[in-house]
Amino acid sequence: MDEYYVRCGACFDGVHEELQKNVGILVREGRIVQAGQELPCPRGTQVLDLSHLTVTPGLIDAHVHFDFLSDQTGGPGARFLASDEMKTLTLLYNAGQSLRRGFTTVRHAGGKISTFGALDVKRAIDAGMFQGSGWWWSPMP
Fold it and tell me: Does domain 59-137 have CATH number 3.30.110.90?
């Protein structure tokens, strides 16, 4: 069983206005099963010592357009000229960047892609093929 204990330096839990001290988080099979102040670490559990950092739960962004290209991927107007394949790669790249910034869940609000690229990226992330924010897709009308 994949289980580890996260030792937090401080924890912003989204409930209290102030940072919580001495917080432990027990994670089993990739899911938080218990968290709290003075939470004991079960014997034999791998410890992830983040006592020098502030920990917060994953953030949620309910409106993103991951298929928008930046200047680095084609300059102004690139989103209108890029292929659907390039937009799909941009979706995958932006989902990974979003996760690294702390967003564990996002809602992709659709965009300028006419194929199933957005769904393919979601399915690939869900299948564990790539790391990226978990997301749901809301196609634009």
Answer: yes
